[in-house]
Amino acid sequence: MKHYMPTRILTGKGILQKHKEVFPATGKSCYIIxxxxxxxxSGALDDLTAILEEYSIEYAIYDQISQNPTVVSCIxxxxxxxxxxxxxxxxxxxxxxxxxxxxxAVVAANPELTEELIYQQSWNSKPLPLILIGTxxxxxxxxxxxxxxxxxxxxxxxxxxxxxYAKYAxxxxxxxxxxxxxxxxxxxxxxxxxxxxxxxxxxxxDISKAYALEGVRILYPELKLLAEHKKLADxxxxxxxxASILGGLAINITGTVFCHTLGYYFTEQYHLPHxxxxxxxTNELLDYxxxxxxxxxDGFFHTLQIDRDAMKELVxxxxxxxxxxxxxxxxxxxxxxxxxxxxxxxxxxTMTVNDIxxxxxxx
Length: 363
Ligand code: NAP
Ligand code: FE
Description:
This protein is an alpha/beta fold. Helix content is 54%, strand content 12%.
């Protein structure tokens, strides 16, 4: 079995204040990376800067990270952090900011890096220490060694590297309360996608399966509340956040499957938020596994005491209405992307590009 987790994970209400000693212990100057509104709306940015000021830690803020961050913005943030002579980086935001902060921490220590070299993962110096503070509950990016960025051609492409692990991941569920409902649903369903894609994965082992099962067990009733537009309590925010962390821990071991790699295209081309884009294919995954690996699939649902059809209905209820249909020309143009694709290969079983073609035709 393989499992490596160097990030110190600290979650719970008021966790930043409870562990504020982490900041002076990490350095004397800090470069904060965030996006337009999440840092402020969540309250995380104010909490962070108050702590930095209390310890007389110098800081500067870069707030230009957008959704599905461009490599260009990650390089800019990293170079600015280098110019600022930061000792460490703090990323405050959703998955987009957290991913961008990982690459920026690498660039801050290697300011000569270009987009090409970043994708080649060719750098000499170790990244600056990185602290991540999440404001969404879904990607689990706080704890993963992955940075997903949009390249110069507008394609979402990730890097995976042990250097990208944060030193500390802070997760205060209270920071997720300010998310608009559609962001909350999209991010929560991303967490479900991670958990399922990790379980139905050729790389799954007993540790990743334990994370995945526990994550779905916690998340499933919360997704029902979201589908019914129920008001959430503190416990619900915490449960969704914890499930998202379990999803991150699970995909660190296994990677994701075809749903994620297909989802990237629907974000690039049809601007669907990441979680919704990937979850477009969640039921296809459940159907594929039911058809080809009935025992494994039944075992999963039996362990959780969840009905497979009820799970599928819940996914459908959470997805927005989309009238996306790909014509034959678009499908054929897209298929080369999924030939010899690692995520397609990860899918539990022996999925091929022919299966992908059939799935795209069913959209
Ligand atoms: P996001 O793109 O980080 O944020 C989505 C939107 O939510 C933004 O408009 C943001 O506003 C807003 N927002 C975030 N937190 C908020 C809060 N607390 N209150 C109010 N608004 C808030 O969404 P995400 O789903 O968390 O991240 C998606 C990205 O993560 C994708 O690029 C995906 O590929 C990547 N991802 C990475 C991993 C990994 O392992 N590294 C795993 C899954 C997904 P502002 O932009 O205005 O601040
Ligand atoms: Fe995801």
